[in-house]
Fold:
Amino acid sequence: MTTSLLITPIEARVLATLMEKARTVPDSYPLTLNSLLLGCNQKSSRDPTMELTETDVSAAVDTLRERGLVNETAGGRTVRFTHNAQRGLGVPDQASVLLGLLMLRGPQTAAELRLNAERWYRFADTSSVEAFLDELQERAPEKGGPMVVKLDRAPGAREQRWAHLLCGPLDASVGVGRSSNKAPAGELGARVAHLESEVAGLRATVERLCAELGLAQPD
Structure:
């Protein structure tokens, strides 16, 4: 279960960062190499976080340009870059948004994707998100095959998460409707990171409430 167009995790981060900035900070787009590097390495809205070098990003840009996914803009004293993801991947606009978010933030449920897509594209409801994800999962072999996979429901989770396949098959990609008694290492790591993020958010909320009520901060 894979797609014929395979890119590395660094290339995915570079491409998705260009996709994000084109929609969220259009006044700063196209991006310079330095702006692109900062966007790739930012700590918020990234899973996993990365510490890429200018050489890493430059090499990824070169490869993505060769594959028709990134363009270099002419004019001005500084070279800038734009993405060509929608056409290069051969998917509708809404589907490219979902792929971009999955490349930036890792596996997510359809509800999480709808929420995280607010600044990119406003989906009418979670069902519309699921419809585009289903299309990407059922993509015909002659079009490159599936681009996303629906992961098994994690123990205690209410919804299943989705992951992209642009970097190849995942250890956690165990198919739809199948069960696994032991979570693969890749899925376990993503689950731990998700739980840590939730705990950090809850702690911040508790600390804020304690400050507002004049209570002692928890240890």
